[in-house]
Design goal:
Strand content: 15-25%
Shape: globular
Structural class: alpha+beta
Radius of gyration: 21 Å
Helix content: 25-40%
Order of helices and strands: HEHEEHHHHHHEEEEH
Strand order of the largest sheet: 1-3-2-7-6-5-4
Mean pLDDT: 93
CATH class: Alpha Beta
CATH topology: Beta-lactamase
Length: about 270
Amino acid sequence: MKTTFRHIILTFLSFFGLSVNAQKQTTETRNDFKKYYDQFKVEGSFILYDQNNDKYIVYNQPQTKEQFTPSSIYKICNSLIVLETGVIKDENFVIKWDSVTRQNPNWNKDHDLKTAFRNSTVWYYQELARRVGGKQMKYWLDKTNYGNADTSGGIDKFWLTGGLRITPEQEIDFLKRLHDNQLPFSQRSVDIVKKIMIVKDTLNYVVSAKTGWGEQDNKDIGWYVGYVETKGNVYYFATCIQTTDFNNKNFANARIEIVYLILDDLKLIDK
């Protein structure tokens, strides 16, 4: 019956010169993006989702389905959780530096959520996680469906050296739900996090993003994830790079530069 009805509708539309455009999701593989990873002597993958055209553009697709430690890209989700639970009031919440000198000079001062997010200040987010507590943190990870939602390894370490893992594909899904206000957080919490994520604001586009750097399986793991908003579309991106060369001095820049080289290649931004 359903098939017959559909046939009648299609026949009717065809008779009057009308057509039905059922857009199908597509995936384009770009093996040529390998040159950007080779340029920085790293391995890795790239995935971009074009929202309007329901299209994925990928490099090294098998790896986009592999789980990696999120390290500091978890700060996006962590920020949402601390705001939603009332652990902090807003992005201006200051935690005083404990006077412990750490490897990144930018960490050795007082921070609020804005500066801690921008500088990936680990101690600030560790303190926030301790204030949230293990039970609430696990509840919100499950509710958010973030990666494998594994909080083993300690409340202030699970996203760094503990059990939390996420795939580049899952990260894209998380970013889409964030942008489209489909995560289980209040609009206020989401709006604050979206604001602190902005790294580039131009007349033609806005880039919101976060870096991450951790270790897994005797490799450095680097991330750069986010989305580009243009006047008529949104493009979500994630790169995850790896190297066994812990002396690779270009590793920190590689995470970001590879993404912008690809976005420029795709003519989505002006590099």
